[in-house]
Structures are given as C-alpha cells and as structure tokens.
Amino acid sequence: MAFVRKIKKGDTIYLAKVESYREDGKVKQRVLEYVGKEEKGRPVIKVDLEKIAVASVKRHLDISILHQLSVELDLPKMLGKSANPLLSMIYGQLLHRSSIVKLADWFTHTTIYDLLKCEPFSTKDLYESLEQMQKISFDSIEKNLISIWRKMAPDDDNTVVLDVTDTYFAGSTAECKPRRGKDGHVSRLLQVGLIVSFKNGFPLLHRTFEGNVHNVKVYENMLAEIANNGFKGIIMDRGFFSKEVVEDLIQLGMLAIVGVKQTEGLQKQFLSKIVREDIYNKQHQVVLKETIVYIQPFDYLGGKLIAIYNPTLEVLKRDKALAEAKDGKEPDTLKYEGFSLAFHNTAYDDKEVIKKYFEKDIVERAFKALKGPLALHPIRVWVRQHVEAHVKICYLAMAILALLDYRSRQIKISGIEALKMLQYTYMVNLKHEDTKKEWDKLVTMTGKEKELIKILKCSV
User: Fold this and answer.
1) In the beta sheet, which residues pair with residue 57?
2) Count of beta carbons in the 10 Å neighbourhood of residue 409
3) Distance in angstroms (rounded) separating the CA atoms of residues 315 and 329
4) How far is it, in rounded angstroms, from Cα 188 to Cα 234?
5) Helix (H) or strand (E) holding 139
C-alpha cells in the first residue's frame, strides 16, 4: 500500500510516494515518485504546469463576503427551509441585475451552490421560494434584525427616518389601479414605507401599500410599531405633517423633526412677521453640506416651528418665475420664495435640528440603493404576492449592504464600492490531464482587498 513519506536531503524535505515491500525477511520501501516538498511546514505539491488545464472559472469573493455577512445577521436561520434559494436571490439582487428567469443560469457561473452546500435551483424553485417568503413571519425577522443591529452598531442612536417611495410593477392580475408616479409615468404602483436608522441607514422596518395611499396613512400604520420597537426620535418629510401627527407623537412621548408644508395660514401667522434683513445675518446662519440657510424659530404646538430661509434658492425661483411671467409683473407667490418650514419638539438646539433634518437624505440614499444596485425598479414579477416577496428580498439585501457599508467606511469607501472591488476575485478550478486530479485556486488578491476583508471581519 502506497503512502507519502518525508525524505530529508540537506536543508530540504521532499515528499515522496513510497510503498513497502519485503526482501530477505526485512521490510523495505521503494520510492514510486517524488510528489513535492515541504516549505514552512506546509506541503507544496510538484505539478507539471504544461499538463494543467482550467476546468472552470466562477465568481466567488464578493458572493462569499455577502454570505458571511448574511450569516452574521442570522438570515439563513430566520429564512428557514427556503433559506438557500432566497439567499441566492438576495445575493443576485446585489450583484446581478436581471429577471428571475435569468438568475438560475447566472448562479451556475458562481460559487453560490458551493457556499450554500446545495443542489442547483430551477426557475420554478425560485418562484416557489417567493411564495414561501410570504408565509414567513417577517415581523419576527425585522425584530431580530433590529436586535442584532443594536449589538453590532452600539453607536447608532434611537432616532429613525421615515419616508415613502413607489415602484412600478406589471401584474395584470393585481388589484391596484394605475396611478401617476412621482416621475409622471402612469402605471400600477406599489408604495414602500421604509424606516432606517438615522446615523447609519440600517433598514429597521418596512411595509407595502397600494399606490394611492397618502403618506399620513402610511405614518399612522407604522407609528405603533416604531414606538413598540423602542425608537424615541423620528425625522420625516413634510408630506407626513399634520397637527394630528404631532399630537400622536407627543402622546407616545416621541421626539420628532418634521418638515411642514406651507399654508396661507402659516404664512400669515409666521412668515409674514419675518424681516429678511433681520434673519439674513451671521447669528441666524446654519452651514449645511451643500448650501447655507438662515433660521428663525417660533413657538408652535408645544414645540418649535422653524422658518428656514435659503437666499440662493430664492434667487433661482424668483428668476425662473419672472422669466415665465407673461405680463412682466412679479407674481404674488414670490413673497415667500426661498422659505421652508420644519417642526420639532426635541431638546436639540434649533440649528442642530436643521442640520439633522437636511441630513435625513440617509433614507433617500437607501431608496436609491433599492432602485439602483438592488434593482427594485422595475419589479419583474407579475403576481401580487411575488411583488411583495420581491420587496422583502430587496429589504434583506439592503440590510446586508448597510452592514457592508458600515464596516467598509473605515477605509472610506461605500458598500457598493467594496463589492466592485471584490467582484474580480474568482475561484478557478484546475485539472491535471494525466492524474485527473482537480483543485480550486483563488485568484491572487491585492493588498487593498486583503485589508477590506479584514475590516469586514470575513475570511477568504
């Protein structure tokens, strides 16, 4: 019986394939072939490079990283029996923008099946997993993710941002009537109410609604869940504001920063009292990331109503309005151009409130991720339950992306940039023509990629 033996010659240790035999009553060994040598305690196999062929090349490192992060978020366990096909679609949403019909083929060119240790999926399997997604208690998944995120990012506070976006879908069997979207296009719409953490943009809650549901109704539907999950502060755009909303927040003991839509009553009661020469000075100035504004607070509904004056915006709107005026007269509506309103009942300084309000674009960036890298728009499924399941797929993909973004920020790159950096590190399967032996080889990584993997707390 042949076995591998170490043979030391000088300072080198060779690995030889030997077999035992008996001669003159003594057991001896004969060398069948030298198979390599030992370097730094590890075997290095001798290979004839001319007889090695590449059997396959598969996309690997970016998928492996996503899978390791999903395990950290406990997604495989939370998704239950349908975890493998659902995880595959989650990874596909982040890395490969295509329809479900084309996903199954793309999987074969990756190491997804090796990572998940499962058999290949058919398109039918993927559609059936979408139906299974609707049977999973997603409320429990969200609660678990909130708990996990709080442990991962203790620096995140209890302030959240709420916003609503809409997306089109094609289902002729859907109950929704066509409606005009924000871009003016008329089609069947599904609205997604999304709540993310203010500081890091981690998705915390989401709900889907018919395309014609008003923002205030979305807020009312999600308010109890926001409070029940222990969030104490909320930032919202002006589409959510009403006196009833403020009263609800106060009753729940929540702090809020909310944009306020201008009405004739508010203009007359507050904006008409502002003298531009008084507000337009250093004392009232707030320097934002992309512009400079000036503020003046008023007592309102147990909190503060802040008038925000943006002289740059006023000039742009005034020039446009005058250019469009047919009779050359200045329209009456120009009187309050450049002004906007925001309400808050927090302990923050008024200037800090305005900074927080205008930095709420964290949720807008999250929506851009949904409609961009996560390919929520358009949804390429028809049946309503598939549409809602697909939104959940995108939501979980956003959770992984947010964790990736949170960690990769240490080297000043975004989660999307991190994925782009990792996408060209393939797993190559090599095969020896004579011995028929096969082995996998990872394409050599750069120093930057190694640093990123370490920061992500992942392995190759």
Assistant:
1) 428
2) 14
3) 16
4) 30
5) helix 138-152
Q: Where are the beta strands (DSSP E) in 351-458?
A: 426-432, 438-442
Per residue in 36-52, pLDDT tens?
777 777 765 655 656 66
Tokens linked to 20: 């035992």
Give which of 65, 59, 156, 60 is closest to 457, Cα–Cα.
65
What is the rounded CA–CA span in Å between residue 101 and residue 87?
16
180 pLDDT tier (thresholds 50, 70, 90): low
Contact 13, 44 (CB under 8 A): no
Shortest CA distance to 348 belongs to which of 274, 246, 257? 257
Report the C-alpha gap between 94 and 112 in whole angstroms. Answer: 13
pTM of the model: 0.78
The secondary structure element, H or E, covering residue 357 is helix 350-358
- b/e burial code for range 60-94 (CB count within 10 A of at least 16 → b): bbbbbbbbbbbeebebeebbeebbbbbbbbbbbbb
Structure tokens at 436: 């028929």
CB 263 within 8 A of CB 333: no
Q: Is 277 exposed, middle or buried (0-12, 13-18, 19+ CB in 10 A)?
A: exposed
Q: How many CB atoms lie within 10 A of CB 323?
A: 7
Which tokens belong to 324?
């469009």
The candidate with the shortest Cα–Cα distance to 242, out of 278, 210, 217, 277, is: 217
- Tell me, what's the pLDDT at 48? 60
In the chain, the amino acid numbered 356 is K
Token reading at 347:
């302990």
Neighbours of 130 (CB within 10 A): 23
| Cβ atoms within 10 Å, residue 450 | 11
341-357 burial string, b = 16+ CB within 10 Å, else e? bbbbbbebebbebbebb
Q: Compute the distance between CA of residue 393 and CA of residue 395 in angstroms, rounded to an integer.
A: 5
In whole angstroms, give the CA distance from residue 314 to residue 340: 11
Contact status, residue 162 vs residue 249, Cβ threshold 8 Å = no
CA 114 to chain centre: 24
* Helix, coil or strand: residue 289: coil
Lowest mean pLDDT among 6-10, 95-99, 382-386: 382-386
For 199, the 3-state DSSP assignment is: coil
**How far is it, in rounded angstroms, from Cα 317 to Cα 315?**
6
Which DSSP symbol is given to 406? H
CA distance 349 to 190: 38
**Residue 34 forms beta bridges with which residues?**
16
Using alpha carbons, list the distances in angstroms from residue 101 to 58, 104, 129, 175.
Answer: 20, 7, 14, 24
- Angstrom distance (rounded) from CA 389 to CA 135: 10
